Amino acid sequence: MSKVKETCTIVSQEQIGTGIFSMWLQTKEIAAQAVPGQFVSVYTRNGSKLLPRPISICEIDREQGRLRLVYRVTGKGTGTEEFSGLHAKVTLEVMGPLGNGFPLKEAEGKKVFLMGGGIGIPPMLQLAKEINGEKMAVLGYRDELFLNTEFEKYADVYLATEDGSAGTKGNVMDAIRENGLKADVIFACGPKPMLRAIKAYALENGIECWISMEERMACGIGACLGCVCQSKEVDEHSNVHNKRVCKDGPVFKCTEVEL
Amino acid sequence: MSNVKVTLAGVELKNPVMTASGTFGSGAEYSEFVDLNRLGAVVTKGVANVPWPGNPTPRIAEVTGGMLNAIGLQNPGIDTFCKRDIPFLKQYDTKIIVNVCGKTVEDYCEVVERLGDEPVDLLELNVSCPNVKEGCIAFGQNPYALEDITKEVKKYAKQPLIIKLSPNVTDITEMARAAESGGADIVSLINTLTGMKIDINRRTFAIANKTGGMSGPAVKPIAVRMVYQVANAISLPIIGMGGIATAEDALEFLMAGATAVSVGTANFFNPYTTVEVAEGIEKFLDDRGIADIHEIIGCVK
What we know:
heterodimer, A: 259 residues, alpha/beta, Elongation Factor Tu (Ef-tu), domain 3, Rossmann fold, Dihydroorotate dehydrogenase B (pyrk subunit), domain 3, seven-stranded antiparallel β-sheet, 34% strand, B: 301 residues, TIM Barrel, four-stranded antiparallel β-sheet, 16 strands, globular
């Protein structure tokens, strides 16, 4: 598996929620190589914004060589705001696929929770498509829903909203409890407090659990050591208690990392 | 074909393009994008006598035309470095320059002595990292301390010694002279400029270390000015860096007086930059019928 930087063409761009956009990209090589849980680095067209934006892969169409990115616009004048204004046929520089991805085999034939919180939900969609097991997608939102109906094709869907407007009032952990759900394996992506709670739950109940982490990045390929997270043991590459989110992750076994 | 070979303290580089320490690891990651055989040299991430964990995150923030970093010189320590990184680089036909960091003079000497028997071509003393509390820039902002550490390390160094200068000083020529009188063989400049970014929504610093070193295209005019000043102040060869993203940028440094150039932050937004710069310099010379790169080194007076 090798990573490349290539010029991709936007196939479609659609707003699917408040500040949430869905973009399909035509790639030359990246889609064919990509696996669920990996991400790409997307470069802005503004020369004064140097660093690529790491964005998780929401869907992979290997046949047509396309990738779907679902991302949140993080503010005025940001790179993601620029992306959201680009239409079909416009090109973007993209590097990928980056990172390791989720270990699909660990869920083979098992009961598995796919837990996503906020903008951590998109990478769970391709995962839901590819896992061969009994899938329960547990999705947590602040208020407004997005992508939830798309999960219904591949998994039983359980929702949690902070304001109680849909599904369980509260977070993904509340949704598990309220619905009396049980799993053998957990795959999760979302904000750190959520991952922390999921890790604690997994350890208490002896459930195998993998989480996808996020950190500010520069190079995206493991060279600059900008995006490290704390590892439980001394990491083989860094020789200290640091793992690179971009290269050693973003997916880690929950017991590997300190949250 | 124009000659693009340059010599630094007796070490001949096939071209003047190298990597800037800390932006290229030890080359393994970028070797998936560029052929390291095409580079004049690879300058490694700083290495200390023992592993360093570096700073807490966030370590990175983007600023207009550049970025701030405060990695804090995370490194695996000299043992792992010698076992893993040097053999990796030895597979390639490029020169190996090891960036050395430390908290005390003894730390630097220990690493430099250890590297004496390794197939390393040049040593670069990192006395200019702004992101660690002890060592490093403490030596690089005081001309007496800089001269002393240079003298001391020279006693242990088997390879020629590069002193990497900090731009966070009132007069960089004073520091360059101190390095020269301490016995340095080469100077490299500039390291990053200390900067700060505030996250107004979280009402805190964008970087956990509060300050970070600024790099990227926005710092280039400052770097070119400093290379020019140093070139006119001392007689040692200079490795110029600071915001180089294209061959044209690199040529500015060469004309200002640098014998070689380093590509740093640009690797992050274009992983092919190093080779593109090397090819672009060659093309510039060929197109103008300039037979030897030395005709343009320091050509602006």
